[in-house]
Amino acid sequence: MEPGDFVNLATALCALAGLIVLFRIFRGDRSDNKGGMVLALVVLGGLVYFMRTTYGMDMINHLFEIMR
Description:
68 residues; mainly alpha
C-alpha cells in the first residue's frame, strides 16, 4: 500500500467515525457524555488535518520507509 492510499483510507475511516459520533450526539440521549463526544470530533478533525499537511505526509512517508 502506498502512503497516499493509506492517507485516503485513514481519512475515510476518520470521516466515518465522525459521522458515528455526530449521530450519537444528536440522537437525544441525555446520559451520553456530549463534551467527550465533541472532544472526539475535534481530535478526529485534528488528525485528518495533520495527515493532510506536508509535515504529516512526510512523517507517514518516513514510517512507510521504516517498514520496508
